[in-house]
Amino acid sequence: MKYKRMPIEAESPEELGYGTIECNLAESSVSDTNFKDLKFNIKDIPLCYGDHKGLPALRELLAADYNMKPEHIILVPGAAAGLFIVSTALLNKQSQLLVERPNYATNIETPRLLECEINFIDLHFEEQYQLDLYKLSTMAKSKPTLISITTPHNPTGSALSEEELLEVIELARKHNSYLLVDETYRDLSFNTPPPLAASLSDRVISVSSVSKAYGLPGIRMGWIACKNKRLLELFLAAKEQIFICNSLLDEHVALHYLQNKSKFFTPILKHIKKNFATLEKQMSQSKNLEWVKPKGGVVCYPRIIPKINYNQFYETLYKEHKTLVGAGHWFETDKKYMRIGFGWPTNDQLKQGLANIETTINGLKK
């Protein structure tokens, strides 16, 4: 496989150096959780090979929450690993993929490496970034091996209703396709989310993690949920060849967090609500940006109204104002679009970062 680095990774805050950024609006997650705040004792955890499917207690907890069975869940080192496993297990040069765009880069780049046929379901600003179900139904007539969607969506924040999700699942069933649903932001839905997609059909594969919603990207813990026994065996074989098992430390930390979820997650939701109100107010007043209000997650995907030098905009914003956003080219769209993350920064950092965006655009207007 001819691997190449993705811009979203090469230009990420951790690569540029967090010390060079004062207003970090590039993150697609909530702020990081400090281990000390978990008050968790790791001294009695055996450092052995773990259950290849993942810690049974954690799979049982997730299964109960999802109305599934523990055997329907495989724990993996983060959602990115889950997406990689699904793509490499199901796609090859003879396969066809239908995938949303813009998208989290891994959902597109890994299939590209596999040289499968890719057809994009493009989401448009003018259509509120909503998935065009009629277009999808037309494209699905080619009987793709895999249909790949994300809800709530990264980077736009759009989301499917339960009715819409069921329609996509029926399309996959009708055309004998599998449906991959990246549900990493499910717990950050602004309204009651639909049931986990994988709980609704054995044609569906759901992927999620503790990174985006809970601020635990450092423990690398995610999962694949699926009712299809043959697929689960395939995914487990892939996991065993790549990882064998997960880090028991990571699994136990995730279990502890989710067992005490209300305690840790409530302050996160409060912070997001406050920051979203700040963002909403600024966007309603802006003469330089227009947006589609997100329905979930901690990101939005506005666009710049005036015609300016977009390369200069990103360079000035970062170098002079020490503010970073997710540039449009991270997601294969025009650079007039940008992803703004409102879950990671403090409220003051968000306010200053939004002000810096306005100042930078004003300075570049002709």
Q: Can you give a write-up of this model?
A:
By secondary structure, this protein is of the alpha/beta class. The protein folds into two domains: 7-28 and 262-364, Aspartate Aminotransferase, domain 1; 43-259, 3-Layer(aba) Sandwich (Aspartate Aminotransferase, domain 2). The chain is 39% helix and 14% strand. It has a seven-stranded mixed β-sheet, sandwiched between helices. The protein has a three-stranded antiparallel β-sheet with strand order 10-14-13, with no helix packed on it. Helix 5 (79-90) runs parallel beside helix 6, helix 5 crosses helix 9 (229-242) and helix 11 (261-285) packs parallel to helix 13.
Distance between the termini: 45 Å
SSE order: HHEHHEHEHEHEHEEEHHHEEEHEEEH
Domain count: the total is 2
The fold-level CATH name of the largest domain is Aspartate Aminotransferase, domain 2
CATH homolog superfamily of the largest domain: Type I PLP-dependent aspartate aminotransferase-like (Major domain)
Note the beta-strand portion.
Answer: 5-15%
Number of strands: 14
Which descriptors would you attach to this protein?
366 residues, alpha/beta, Aspartate Aminotransferase, domain 1, Aspartate Aminotransferase, domain 2, 2 domains, 7-stranded mixed sheet, 3-stranded antiparallel sheet, 14 strands, 39% helix, globular
